[in-house]
Amino acid sequence: MSPNFKPYYAVIFTSTQKENITGYAEMANKMEELAKKQPGYLGIESSRSDLGITVSYWESLEAIKNWKQQADHLEAQKQGKTKWYRWYKIRICKVEHEYEFSSLDN
Amino acid sequence: MSPNFKPYYAVIFTSTQKENITGYAEMANKMEELAKKQPGYLGIESSRSDLGITVSYWESLEAIKNWKQQADHLEAQKQGKTKWYRWYKIRICKVEHEYEFSSLDN
Fold this sequence. Notes:
The structure is a homodimer. Chain A is of the alpha+beta class. Chain A has a single domain, classed as Alpha-Beta Plaits (2-Layer Sandwich). Chain A has helices at 24-36, 61-68, 71-84, and strands at residues 8-17, 41-48, 52-58, 85-102. In chain A, strands 2-3-1-4 form a 4-stranded antiparallel β-sheet. In chain A, helix 1 packs antiparallel against helix 3 (71-84). The first copy, chain A, is globular and about 45 Å long. The two termini of chain A are 24 Å apart. At the A-B interface, strand 1, strand 2, strand 3 and strand 4 of A face strand 1, strand 2, strand 3 and strand 4 of B. Strand 4 (85-102) of chain A pairs antiparallel with strand 4 (85-102) of chain B. Chains A, B: Keywords: Monooxygenase, Oxidoreductase. Chains A, B: Its EC number is 1.14.-.-.
């Protein structure tokens, strides 16, 4: 860990989807664009095979709370529950350490 | 958050792979089986599209440290750096809150 490392927050969103996910991709893109404009947004990483994992990164718990309550996002959450997600789990985490590797023959 | 919620730890492992990943799947399965036997192991979630995200969950930082230093895992890490990963980032996080959703028409 760098001596200058400043802790930040991660939201781990793990999900399985229903078979019919009409409208999902459009909404997901819209929400990602919107999240990027939120105060305290740091980044997002996303992957989906059987399971979907999206991790978004934030400066503070306050920033996460504000994003959770953003009006368009509230509507997306509602649609997510009724239309697209079979199951999801959200974990709010404090990132305490991090390290990175890049291969030389990249 | 449940009043009985007990914080635990997550290791977020985000990666991109090289084109030739011969031997990777076998090693990944082996490591997952091995992790499950480690003291303090709680669970694992994995997904890969362009980006791979694997999140493993642990009771304590001590459990994560022990897993990091496990002999077969050290060998896997070494091979990961030289053979399979183009890039990776590891974040050690404390899970402070969590909530879960299951659809009724599941």
